[in-house]
Amino acid sequence: MINKVMTKKSPLGIDLGPGTIRIVELVKKGTELKFNNIAVYNHSISIDESIKDLGESIKKCLKRSGFKNRDACLALRERDVIIKTLNFPVMSNKELSSVIEYEADKHLMFPKEMFVTDWSIIKRQKNNMKVLFLASNRNIIDKYVKVAEFANLRLKALDVEVFSLLRYISLSFEKENAAKPLNLILDLGLISTTILIAKGSQYIFSRNISFGTEKLVRQNLQKAVTDNVMEEQIVNNLIIEIERSIEYLNIEGIIKGFPIQLLVTGRGWEQKDLLDIVTKYLGLSPILIDPFQELSTQNINSSFIQEGMTMSIATSLALRNWVS
């Protein structure tokens, strides 16, 4: 008797980045994960502007690239989510749920009825427990739900970008029973940058800052930027914010010392010399988060390979069924 190895498809991972829609579909055959289809579609529509037009753009992208699957996972931007780590004495989940209802009022600027909230226990010790609390405005969540409807998608999950990225790190950079390093993860985009601190793939802290490379790209095109100007902008807008974040975490006793491992991803690193400048100031050798270097691209057009560092969020979303 021949044992047939079943092939399973993932929901589509769809990253609605500024100016670009990125879509990933994975397949799993046995224990092997492969890219089954990929699409990159440039557009000029923001989810904050026209929900219907963005949904129509996704629909066009799916049709043009031959996607049949309509199950999908989307991700909220880090800046659209309130993320807090809370400490409580040990209690039952029922008691904790009531306590968090009360605590929510302290952390939300508006009535909690305006928010969708969630929480999970991330560490339980003998006398205390650490809880991750999340909240996002209902209006923002409704926008993503409606975008999916206009795109004729079945929305299976609405994730958060930083947690989606940590899922990929768990798969690709964590070895079983190995020590988990303190990671500094930089997702550098055209408009903004997310600073993420994690113990291995366990969330500690994140912050989104309004520093992206779009301005630098425009200046380069105008031949109005020098290496010194670029270096000054990076130091003032990125390095200082990283150091402030790490200093805060040390003062609060959340971490000890400086992260020992730097992981980088995002479209912003395409900017010439940027990675060298940042790593020089941080004193850490970068590790690239590039799904195309980790998962099989046998089925993918070679023209997409250079997009690897821009596909981490979409790939992480597509992994949701297989990596917790």
UniProtKB/TrEMBL annotation:
Residues forming coiled coils: none
Protein name listed in UniProt: Pilus assembly protein PilM
Organism expressing this protein natively: Natranaerobius trueperi
